[in-house]
Design a protein that fits this description.
The protein is mainly α. It has three domains: 5-129 and 167-185, Methane Monooxygenase Hydroxylase, Chain G, domain 1 (Up-down Bundle); 131-165, no CATH class; 232-339, Alpha-Beta Plaits. It has helices at residues 5-25, 30-36, 41-48, 54-63, 70-80, 124-129, 134-141, 146-151, 168-184, 207-216, 219-228, 236-243, 258-268, 288-339; strands at 87-89, 107-112, 115-120, 232-235, 276-278, 282-285. The chain has a three-stranded antiparallel β-sheet with strand order 1-2-3, covered by helices on one side. Strands 4-6-5 form a three-stranded antiparallel β-sheet. The longest helix is centred in the C-terminal third of the chain and has 52 residues, at 288-339. The relative contact order is 0.08. It holds the Pfam family Myosin_head.
Amino acid sequence: QDNSFEQFIINYCNEKLQQIFIELTLKEEQEEYIREYFNNAIICDLIENNQTGILAMLDEECLRPGTVTDDTFLEKLNQVCATHQHFESRMSKCSRFLNDTSLPHSCFRIQHYAGKVMYQVEGFVDKNNDLLYRDLSQAMWKASHSLIKALFPEGNPAKINLKRPPTAGSQFKASVATLMKNLQTKNPNYIRCIKPNDKKAAHVFNDALVCHQIRYLGLLENVRVRRAGYAFRQAYEPCLERYKMLCKQTWPHWRGPARAGVEVLFNELEIPEEEFSFGRSKIFIRNPRTLFKLEDLRKQRLEDLATLIAKIYRGWKCRTRFLLMKKSQIVIASWYRRYA
């Protein structure tokens, strides 16, 4: 309920992660996403801009001479961010907020991608300074324990820097930038964790809580965008391997390129052409119902194949037993006739 500096920088990181989530997971639908949905780059700029960003204003207040308080920091935000459409303050120059009684004088509000969050400015300046005395760092660096020594590299006398230590906000901003750079070099898979209830109890599903999380994680928008394009995509080889039993021409073995096999398979199944598209290395399926149809056909075909295997096995077993009994009968009959 009470959000301070810690929650502010956490939400800043969430904004950056949401931004890279858009860039990395929706590249093929990027243009449509920009047309249809909100791009949160403007919020990230509000927080991290080097000249007019909230973190830059906070650092400026922490470093300037004279009396510095949380109220002076809020006054600066009111001046610099007054006209920003995602920033709200009781004392903002934007007149539509002057009569907003739900927003206290010592707070400001940011319209994040997931919704509005109100922040208490009390403690912002002190928490951002986060100063650690140099003599304390040097004392910890001299510790005999290797872990403690590694945690305070700035205490090394050979690396003493007389400059003012970086603020907590600037350190966090640098960490987020490193994280973004690292993520952009990867091929990430996102897993969204949903809490079914607040009690951490089994077999308890709170509909309101789950819906709230789905809305604030932006999952509905992501699903809409994915559905607007191709919901399913798979390389030709594994696709042919999984569904080849649905077509007589591809079962049990297909002699030729995998793409050609997939084309024969989809033509045989009479899937409408608007439901799929062939890429250089993958098959793209537009609608989930097409995939569900393939899975249902595969399931039925597997059952038929299992029945066929069982029938052939039982026939082989009975024939083997019959031939053995026939052979035994001939042996018995020949010995009987010999001694009859």
